[in-house]
Automatic annotation (TrEMBL):
Gene3D superfamilies: 1.20.1280.120, Catalase core domain. It comes from Amycolatopsis saalfeldensis. Has an organic peroxide-dependent peroxidase activity. Its EC number is 1.11.1.-. PROSITE patterns: CATALASE_3 (PS51402). This is Catalase-related peroxidase. Residues 7-312 form the Catalase core domain. The keyword Oxidoreductase applies. CDD domains: srpA_like. Belongs to the catalase family. One of its GO terms (molecular function) is heme binding. Its cofactor is heme.
Length: 312
């Protein structure tokens, strides 16, 4: 097992370990490799304007670009797979600039720290004797890091959505909103599908094409926008902000910050696929929490970006 690494080495060690475990697919993201980008408009409800000064959460609609993705490093895995899905949004701010909100269809993460994530990947390495992961090693990791258990269990039985537009997505980490009053408030985001939840039943999906979810979305968009509401849980004193394996009580006060309407595939897919959606790309009025996984992601994504943008 890797001993603790300096932050500068940790990001490349994690990406190296992902490549070792899942293979290298030149030119693709090291996670969420296959995805498609879409044009969207975000209409804020105005409710958040009292709680944060963030420009896109005020009163005026903003344009956005979103990317739906399959979580794997292998861009060729079929859409019927039981796999986590990603939904990344880049809001185009009034007056220029962008801010990102990156979400998955799980409400919590599988590691409390980037080091724990690396150790989990190491525990999942195939046993040279059998070519398969040694389950005992993964179980030992979970026994030593019990808060990883719920997300790992949820991921293992996560049903495949019928559509990218029929599942809920969470940002997983806590963030801080800062209002004009100077007060910082912990928040957790999720996108709720206006179309409601719809997932594949057991045994369904055998007739799906490998890119069914993209084709389905094209068809759905032909009938009108695909919409999500941005729900925001407001944390209370004592709610954990430092650990994305932990969630907050469901009865926390929530606000509906706005509605996103996805309208069409972007015209320049290549341009948008090349971008990074970085959860630490914030804007005044939104700040990072004390979650070390959140803090680490920007450098990890930069390593992936550097490799893929050089055709590696
Ligand atoms: C230590 C933890 C993590 C590692 C090592 C990791 C790794 C990566 C990498 C290498 C990429 C590709 C970046 C690029 O080339 O642009 C990526 C993308 C992504 N990650 Fe993570 N990630 C972590 C945590 C998370 C968490 C907690 C979430 C939950 C929201 C998440 C959601 C996503 C999504 C949705 C994408 C695709 C973004 C896009 O469409 O461009 N990741 N991740």
């Amino acid at each position: 097992m890797t001993s603790e690494l300096p932050a500068s080495q940790l990001s490349s060690s994690i990406v190296d370990e992902i490549e070792q475990l899942k293979g290298t697919f030149p030119g693709y993201r090291r996670a969420h490799a296959r995805g498609v980008c879409y044009d969207a408009t975000f209409v804020p409800s105005g409710v958040a304007a009292d709680l944060t000064t963030a420009a896109h959460l005020g009163n005026e609609p903003v344009a956005a670009t979103v990317r739906f993705s399959h979580t794997d490093t292998d861009p060729h895995l079929p859409d019927a797979d039981r796999a986590v899905r990603g939904f990344a949004t880049k809001f185009h701010l009034p007056g220029g600039g962008t801010t990102d909100l990156v979400t998955i269809n799980l409400d919590r993460f599988i590691a409390s720290t980037p080091e724990d994530f690396l150790h989990l990947l190491e525990a999942a390495e195939p046993d040279p004797a059998t070519g398969a992961p040694d389950l005992a090693k993964v179980q030992a990791h979970v026994a030593a890091h019990p808060s990883a258990g719920p997300a790992l269990a949820a991921a293992a039985k996560l049903p495949t959505p019928r559509s990218y537009g029929t599942t809920t997505y969470w940002a997983v980490h806590a963030f801080l909103w800062r209002g004009a009053d100077g007060v910082a408030r912990p928040v957790r985001y999720r996108w709720e599908p206006v179309a409601g939840e719809a997932v594949l039943g057991e045994g369904e999906g055998a007739d799906w094409s490998a890119t069914q979810l993209t084709e389905e979305l094209a068809q759905r968009l032909g009938e009108g926008p695909v919409e999500f509401t941005l729900k925001v849980q407001l944390g209370e004193p004592g709610d954990p902000t430092h650990d994305s394996t932990l969630v907050w009580p469901a009865e926390r006060t929530e606000v509906t910050a706005g509605r996103l309407s996805i309208t069409a595939e972007v015209a320049d897919q290549e341009h948008w696929a090349a971008q990074v959606f970085d959860p630490t790309q914030l804007t005044p009025g939104i700040e990072l929490s004390d979650d070390p996984v959140l803090a680490a992601r920007s450098a990890i994504y930069a390593v992936s970006y550097d490799r893929r943008s050089h055709g590696r």
